[in-house]
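Per reviewer request, we include the raw input and output of the structure prediction for the construct analysed in the revised manuscript.
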Amino acid sequence: MSLQPAVSTETYREKALRKFKQQPLVPVGAAATTVALVIAMTKMRKGQSQSFNNWLRVRIVAQGLTIAAVVAGTYAYGTARPQPELDIAAAQEKVLQERAAFEDRLRAAEEVTRAEAGLVPPSGVPRASPQSPAEAPLPTTESPPTAKASRSWWSW
């Protein structure tokens, strides 16, 4: 048993599409409920109380059907689960690819940082060493900032 949290490699769009395929009636019911509520609101603003009440009843029916779709879909999905081994293998492959890409970006950033600090020349550019001490860069005489000198929100 691993103590590390499960890493989600799914984007919001992928998750929404997967959930819509699992339970297609739930988003349809939610949309019907929303439409009925918006129409009821417009009828209320126009002062058509009978039509307003009818649309509120339609909203309640749509809400009930949506909840029934959630329950039925949960029951159906709970009895027929897909093969998790395929999903885990794909997720692990995606994590490895993302990790390799991150490590490449990290190496490039470290190389740039070293080049800016003058420790290592940038790739492809030979570093010229100074011939005499006069040509060597002078060390900076700035002292490191102290806690009192920096005005951050933490120091109040």
